[in-house]
Amino acid sequence: MRCPYFDAELCRSCTWMGRPYDDQLADKQAHLETLLGTDLDWHEPVRSRESGYRNKAKMVVTGTAAEPTLGILDAAGHGVDLRECGLYPLSLQAAFPVLAAFVAHANLAPYDLATRTGELKNLLVTQSPDGELLVRFVLRSQEPVTRIRKHLPALLDALPSIEVVSVNLLPDHKAVLEGEREILLTEQETLRMRVNGIDMHLRPQSFFQTNTDVAAALYRQATDWVRRENPASVWDLYCGVGGFALHVAGSSDVIGIETSVEAVASARLSAADHGLHRARFEAGDATAFALANPAPDLVIVNPPRRGIGAQLAGWLEASSVDHVVYSSCNAESLARDLAVMPSLRPVRAQLLDMFPQTTHYEVLTVLERV
Predict the structure, then answer these.
(1) Whole-model pTM?
(2) Rounded-to-integer distance, Cα 157 and Cα 303, Å
């Protein structure tokens, strides 16, 4: 894949841009085998489309209300417009000019880092497999909300693929994408992410994998490996909107644990939609839940980049759990966690290339007690 933004040195976020894709996969597999070893059952890596694979856009808004820039900030803090970034599918790219026009129409002044004035900080857009959109305006204050509400019907007419619109408030001057408070502006509250025949409801502050096709492959492989062990009871820790739990709930009793109340509400709605009565979801800390409850037959973990940490890894090591299915977006933190669990050895693993053109990837592995 070639990228004019990369070649012009306007954006260097994709550090492997321009490298042959087969070489990227080979280097990721080699890195992974260095960390986990070669003496396990390695499944063929799951390939991704090289371009157009991202289902979400996280755009910093700069410039002026009349001529907004949607993209990133350069080293000097100036906006770089990335509306035609090749990582986004054309259907998602097509939404950006309409959203930029709405920024001008509603007179949403972009936030200026230097002067700390203006209102609109970021524009976050997620696209479902059906092409429907969830749009979030990240604002410094509530001041523009009335204008957004006033002009919202025009936006929905211009971009009928929009299902959910919200405002997120980020009053602090911080280098983060969003704040804690969300204001829903549409009657529809969730975006349906249809994956492997399961509708997962995505609320504005819920996490979902960046690459829908590879996420679908991830859930299919995990389901196959879980069912191979035929567990009566399963925990899905760091469950998010319930991707793993919803996939395996047909054959096991599953409890999903997630700190995000929004994500738990989404998972419960999905389970109810599909009549998955064997799936239960609770908001809470994964480690605290594990320490307070009798162990299940099998545990699924899908932690953030930092991994599950020494305390939960230590609990798993000392527990009666014979199998752990570990999904990781950071193989180095996975390796650190494995060092705390010497009795749980990786027996099967697969690289899933969730993030082409970068050094990042997802790995799914089965740990078995020895």
Answers:
(1) 0.95
(2) 39
Is 329 part of the annotated catalytic residue set? yes
Query: What is the domain range of residue 281?
Result: 4-50+208-369
Long-range contacts of 90-98 (CB under 8 A, 24+ apart): 90/52, 91/127, 91/131, 91/161, 92/54, 92/55, 92/57, 92/125, 92/127, 92/133, 95/125, 95/127, 95/133, 95/159, 95/161, 96/57, 96/59, 96/70, 98/155, 98/158, 98/159
Q: CA 40, CA 38: separation in Å to the nearest integer?
A: 6
**How does DSSP classify residue 190?**
-
3 state DSSP class of 105: helix
Residues 101 and 124 in one domain: yes
Out of 3, 14, 85, 329, the active site residue is 329
At 278-337, the pLDDT tens digits run 999 999 999 999 999 999 999 999 999 999 999 999 999 999 999 999 999 999 999 999
Question: Treating both helix axes as pointing N-terminal to C-terminal, what angle do 331-340 and 21-36 enclose, rounded to 10 degrees?
Answer: 10
For residue 12, give the CATH number of its domain: 3.40.50.150
Residue 340 lies in a domain: yes
Say how many CA atoms lie within 13 Å of 226 toward its Cβ: 33
Angle between helices 145-158 and 95-105 (to 10 degrees): 140
- Rounded CA separation 351/347 (Å): 14
Give the 3-state secondary structure of residue 335.
helix
Cβ neighbours for 149, distance < 8 A, ≥ 6 positions apart: 185
Q: Whole-angstrom distance between the N-terminal and C-terminal Cα of the chain?
A: 44
Same domain, 30 and 115: no
